[in-house]
Amino acid sequence: MVECYQGMLDEEVEKAFRKAFPTAFFIPSSAAMLTEKEINEKLKEDITEDEIFGYMTRYTIDCYFDPAEVEAVQNEIAATDKELVIVYGTGAAYILPEPDLLVYADMARWEIQMRFRKGLASNVGVNNKGERPSLQYKRAFFVEWRICDRFKKTLMDKWDYVLDTNTPDSPKMITGKTLAAGLQEAVTRPFRVAPFFDPGPWGGQWMKEVCDLDRGTPNFAWCFDCVPEENSLLLGIGDIKFEIPSIDLVFAQPRKLLGEPVYDRSEMNSRSALISWIRWKEAISAFRYIR
C-alpha cells in the first residue's frame, strides 16, 4: 500500500514501482473513485465559485470514493493470483485499510504549489492540470489538504515506511519508527523549520541580499517561516537530510510541542470553531432558501 499525499504524481509512483516489481498487480486508488463530475458536484459548496474564498471542508477521505467501486476493487484483489499487489494513490489506504505493508508518500505544500505552477499536478480525483494554479491552490487549501491531513493523522502510527518526495526523481525512504524517533527528538530541544520564499507582484530585492536567495528570480515578496502548514522540517538521518511537512510534528507530538495549557486551549477553540462553522453553514443555507 502506497498512500500518497495530494500532489504526488500517480504515474511517477507507478513507474518507479513497476521497475522494481515488474510482475506485481497494480491498482491506482482512482479506480475506485467517483467520476470527476460527481466529485466536483459534491465539493462545489466548499470550493465555491469565488476567486479567493471558500469553506474549510468537513469532508473526510471517503467523500472521493464510490462504495460499489471500492467493493469491486477489494474483490479483484482477493481474486488475483498475483503474489504481490500494490495499491497506490490518494486514499489507497481507505480502499484496503489493513495492508501487509504501508508506505506513506509525503510532500510539503510548497512543493505542491510549485507543481501546480508548472502544470504537473492535478487536484484529487480530477484532471485539471490546465486550470489556473491559483484555483488549484484554493481547492487544495480549502478541501484536499484538510481531508488528507485528517486521513494522515489516522495513519501515522501505522506507517511502516515514509517517503520524502519533495525533490523530483530523488525520493528518500525511512522506516516509520525512525520518523517517530526523529519527531520525538525534535520536541526535546530548540529547532527551526526550513523557510519558504516566494515571488510576488509587489516583491523587491531586499530578501535576495539578506537571505542569499536565487539571484535569477525577478523578486521575492513572501517569506513563510515557522508556519507548520507551509514549511518543512529537516531531520538528519545519518548523512541524509530527510524532509517532511513540519505539520507532521504538530500531529505527532501536539502536547509536548505546544505544552498542556496551549494544547487544551486549542482543543477547546477547535470545538467552538466546529460549532460556529455548522451554524454558519445552516445560516447560509437558510438565506439561500429565503432568496
Give me the secondary-structure topology:
Elements (H helix, E strand, L loop, with lengths): L1 E3 L5 H11 L4 E4 L7 H12 L19 H13 L5 E5 L2 H4 L7 E4 L2 H9 L15 H23 L5 E4 L7 E4 H11 L9 E3 L7 H6 L10 E3 L7 E6 L2 E6 L1 H6 L1 H5 L1 H31 L1
Parallel strand pairs: 1-3, 1-4, 2-3, 4-5
Antiparallel strand pairs: 5-6, 7-8, 9-10
The best one-word shape is globular
* Nearest-integer average pLDDT: 89
Percent in helix: 40-55%
Specify Rg, calculated over alpha carbons: 20 Å
Oligomer: single chain
Which class best fits the helix and strand makeup?
Answer: alpha/beta
Order of helices and strands: EHEHHEHEHHEEHEHEEEHHH
Portion of residues in beta strands equals 5-15%
Main-sheet strand order equals 2-3-1-4-5-6
The number of helical segments is: 11
Descriptive overview:
By secondary structure, the chain is α/β, with parallel strands linked by helices. It has 11 helices and 10 strands. The protein is globular.
Feature tags:
291 residues; alpha/beta; six-stranded mixed sheet; two-stranded antiparallel ribbon; 11 helices
Briefly say what this structure is.
This protein has 291 residues and is α/β, with parallel strands linked by helices. It has 11 helices and 10 strands.
